[in-house]
Design goal:
By secondary structure, this protein is an alpha/beta fold. Helix content is 41%, strand content 15%. The protein has one domain (36-300): P-loop containing nucleotide triphosphate hydrolases (Rossmann fold), CATH 3.40.50.300.
Length: 302
């Protein structure tokens, strides 16, 4: 069953004076609708991908919607970013699927996909408002596992993700920096992709690599996949190059780029090191305000 924590953080002052009304459990399906699944993807590391997944999920939770942060990066930074251990999945697997592990026939994750309960037993309720997490696990760095997921288990993966969509308003998937493997798997089962774009010299080159991958998926396995938006990150207004990148992205992708621009803010790095979303670390920082605006922008598009 889903682990629950009794302690809850206080309602955040940036959103509203009223507490959210949705204090549901992950075991209780939503009524009459499916949640929206968004993959946060980039082939480059260090562009604010995990920071965005963590803080957008936390912002959505604070706004009163049920959010699931699904960590598919074996580095498990999104998992630790919400205060959970990167070893949580392994310990849960030992308890829930010990009979499979004893046989040594398969990975715990693949065996979970074979089970009727699927991924739900591994979802943790964090101590943050309306925010749940599916912790990462070391097996995601195993190329054989990824190959099995893409071939034999792709339909089971999609099925269980559809089940999760009945339980959450939003699912945010964080992926490793890559153009294949896990990111492709995530994109093939998502409604939309959000692409963080660092305000630096190689920004346009990076987009020229990831956009064709998305177009290929749209033409083949995921025709309904949308680009939720391009998110400009690590912006430093005092740097001429950063301003030039912002201008170029807004010029060439006027309908795709978010109005919100995420600034460079040391508070964002510090909050991650403390296992806290920025709203619970420094709620009045520039980083918190920017992710507040991004949350409003994303929710406003729904």
């Amino acid at each position: 069953m889903v682990e629950e924590k009794k302690s809850k953080r206080n309602w955040h002052p940036l959103f509203d004076r009223r507490p959210p009304t949705k204090h549901l459990t992950a075991d209780a399906p939503l009524q009459g609708k499916l949640g929206r699944c968004i993959t946060v993807a980039s082939q480059k590391g260090g562009v604010g991908k995990t920071t965005t997944a963590v803080n957008l999920a936390a912002g959505i939770g604070l706004a009163g919607s049920k959010a699931l942060l699904l960590d598919l990066d074996p580095q498990a930074n999104a998992t630790s970013g919400v205060g959970e251990s990167k070893y949580t999945f392994a310990s849960q697997a030992q308890r829930s699927h010990s009979r499979y592990l004893e046989r040594g026939k398969n990975s715990a994750f693949l065996e979970a996909l074979e089970m009727e309960a699927g991924l739900l037993p591994f979802i943790l309720e964090t101590e943050f408002e309306n925010l749940w997490a599916f912790p990462s696990f070391q097996e995601l760095s195993d190329l054989q596992l990824i190959g099995s997921l893409q071939s034999k288990y792709i339909n089971k993966w999609k099925f269980h993700l559809e089940v999760l969509r009945k339980h959450f308003d939003f699912i945010l998937m964080d992926c490793p920096p890559s153009l294949g493997g896990i990111p492709t798997l995530a994109l093939s089962s998502s409604d939309a992709v959000m692409i963080p774009v660092q305000c630096e010299y190689y920004a346009m080159e990076g987009l020229s690599q990831i956009l064709p991958v998305i177009e290929d998926l749209q033409a083949t396995s995921r025709p309904d996949l949308k680009i939720a938006g391009l998110l400009l990150t690590m912006y430093a207004s005092e740097l001429e190059l950063a301003n030039e990148v912002v201008g170029e992205i807004q010029k060439y992708f006027p309908r795709l780029v978010y109005r919100t621009i995420i600034p460079r803010d040391v508070a964002l790095a510090e909050s991650a090191s403390h296992g806290l979303p920025i709203f619970y670390y420094q709620p009045l920082s520039r980083g918190a305000w920017s992710y507040l605006e991004l949350t409003r922008e994303v929710l406003g598009h729904e």
